[in-house]
Amino acid sequence: MLAMAFSSTLVFMHTSEDHAGDRRRRAGIVADQVISAPDGLPSGTAARAGSVRGVAASVGLLRTGVLVPVGSGDGRWLRTASTQGVSGSGRDLAAVQDLDVRKGRLDALGPGRVAVDELLAKAAHARVGRRLALHLPDGTRLSTTVVAIYGRGLGIAELTLPRAALAGRVTSSFDSDVLVRDAEGADRKAVAAALGRSVSRSPTGTAKRRPRTRTGS
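Structure for MacB-like periplasmic core domain-containing protein, as requested:
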């Protein structure tokens, strides 16, 4: 009976976390267009999309998992954190994702720098301006400086760092998505059509328009 109750608690807890993650993901994506493909997108897709007339920002997302030291003292251990490597600048990222930054500045993101979800930051004792050691998928140890702490890690990614830090360190260097923000006043349908043509060289790539409605976290 106890085991059944415990199991039910786990099931409902994960279901609640999934729903919370979905809400945060929807609220966190503020892009106007999303380019995706089942098998991933070549690394140059974001640059091609960025050259399309009417596009203000284009960011490729390379998703993986990274090990982060958490805990303290003898209880310190390595925990896998969901991670996104982003092309472009932190300012470009802010145009297509709202990570709900609580401390620091996302536009400070760059080589050797990382933004961290607040729950992971608490577990890892990470603070803005402090160093945080990361263990990349190929075993490489990367020392980074925390530049921002944000609130939407559950729905998007617990770590955000430049794509270049991950490229060559992962099994597949294909982007999972490219997020695009239209320029102010641009014809959204025309931009979507142009994006469709720009990714047509990728046989599985598709561009989808998103409604401009914004959802709270």
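The beta strands are 33-41, 55-70, 77-86, 101-104, 113-117, 131-135, 141-150, 159-162, 175-182, 206-209.
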